[in-house]
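Appendix B. One record, verbatim.
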Amino acid sequence: MIARAELVQLSMLTPGPDAEFLADVVRRFADDPVSGALPAGMVLAPYAVLRTRQGDQAPGAGPTSRPSAGEGCGGPSSEGVPTAAELEAVLGDPRLRVVPEHPGVAAGRRAAEKAAAARGDGADPTDGEGGEGDEGDEVEAVAAPRDLAEGQAYGLAETLRLWRSTDADGVVAAWYLAEARRWVRPLTQPALLGSDPDDTIPGALESWQLGDDVDDLDWVATLSRSPVVVPGVTTRRRDTLADAPPPRREGIELDLWVDSSGSMPGPERGSAALVAGTILVLSVLRGGGRVRVTSFSSPGQVAGGVRPTRDRVEALRDLTTFFGGGTTFPLDLLASRYRGTRLDPAVRRHLVVLSDDGLASMFGAGQPKLSGVAPRVRRVLDTATLVVLGASPAMTEQAEAAGYDVRVLPGVEDAPRLCAELAAVLADPPRRPEETRGC
């Protein structure tokens, strides 16, 4: 009830205070009109609604004319469709994630803060006057979903409707980039071929004592101190310091497989798997690595790069490829890709699969003749992770028996957390066994 009363009060027309609010917005956002447009719009919205109602209710008035698609109050908004860079800039603007606030509410909060500071009681100005009653609980319940609403940012379906005159594939790619970008961190791993740990440089002089290694004796420093050599008194030795640079890190080579069957959410539905995949792809590329993305569905429905790439556009195009058929993991392609492969002392190999419970086909379901492919390939991989939207105990047991790590992705909001866990695994892979047979 309190939230509803505040909403009704804010929707009432008060030209005097509203004019002051607008003047304050103009002053505060003189250098950032985009950020100022929202609070100004919240002040002006009731006036626009009232004007429309008055026009519709006027005697003899026809239907109120409204701007057509692509037009605003000043006429056509732009010529042509936006470029991919423009879409990415708009959808990735962090100001879209700011929670809207009416200038009147902001002014009231600032006044409450000043009053609390003057009293010196340290009271929280956001606390209501009702104390511990039910009204405070009601405000809390109403405010909580708003905090999770990502400000003004739209979901993918709303974004596609808003940009319906634009290429849908470009909008989808820009949306996933915007969702993933704030979670992207350079993803690297320890280099297998490091520097020589025996490199040293001369350090400080120390006393050479009887019993020390004679080879450690520094004769130049000893004779410079005294021409008469007295062991343990005038003898000196030079300490040595390690000169090896910090352990080198290098980019990651990731083999990413994406399930695009009908049981998976399509790219236009805001898929949690694709958000996670985008975060992984961008993190690998930012760390200087390469990625190969393969999209699969029914037998014969496979698309992706022939070799690992550093091309972001190519990787994201393969990532968002969607067939919508059945679920059959292409074990024949997996076998041919790693046929004859052995652990390379200079290369680490990482494999990640994004799928759902239909991934049981990776371990021979429906393909009994190829049931041994996944376990054989696992032996030449440093890490192998299955990210699934839902996994049955039977599939999880099969995967773990073959050496694959299974991680469940409940929803889009969990993608950053899961990618952080994956990044920790990829950035510090387990030590290799001393002997591993080829595939």
